[in-house]
Amino acid sequence: GATTHHVTTFADITQRRAAEDEIRHLAFYDALTGLPNRRLMQERLRQALAGSARHGRHGALMLFDLDDFKTLNDSLGHDVGDQFLIEVARRLASSIREVDTVARLGGDEFVIILEDLDAEAVAAMQAESVAVKIQVALNEPYLLDLSLAGGELNTRSYHCTASIGVTLFRDHSVSVDDLMKRADTAMYQAKAAGRNTQRFFDPD
Fold first, then answer.
1. How confident is the model at residue 128 (pLDDT cuts 50, 70, 90)?
2. What HEC string does 90-125 produce?
C-alpha cells in the first residue's frame, strides 16, 4: 500500500503563454503607440459609466484631433508621422491620472476618459483644466528625425496644435455611442472656431 515510484509529465507552455499575451495585446492595444485601442476604450467607457452611476460622480469624455497632421504625413512621410504620433501618445499619457484612460482611435484621433469628477459645474472646470494642461504639453516643440524620410538634416522642430471636444457624463443616461457622437460634435465646433481650442457639448 506504499508508493514506491512516481511518473511526472510536464509541458513548457512559455511560448504558448507569450503567444496568447501577444494576441490579447494586438486585440486591445494600438500597435503603434501601445495605448488602448477603440475596442478597449469602449469597454473602459462602459466601466466608467457604471462607476459613475454607482458612486454618483461625474466623468468626462475628451476627443482630440491633431490639427494639420495630414500635411505632416504627406510632406515628410508616414515614418516621420508615426514618430510624431508616438510622442503625442507619450505626452497625453503623462498628462492624466492613473485612474483615467487615454486611447488612440486611429489616425490622429485620441480619446481621454476622465473619471471620478465632482458635481457638474466643478466637473466641467476640472475637465477644462485637464484640456488646457494637455494643450500646453502638445504645443511644446517636437524634434523629428528626418533621416526616416531620407532628409539631409538629421532633425527638425515641429509645432502641433489640437482641437478638443468634451462631453460630461453621469450614470447610464447616455450610451457609449451617443457620448462619442457628442464629443465628436464638440470637437468639430472647436475646429470651426479656429482650431487649437476646446469646446464642450451642451445637450440643450
1. very high
2. HHHHCCCCCCCEEEEEECCEEEEEEEEECCHHHHHH
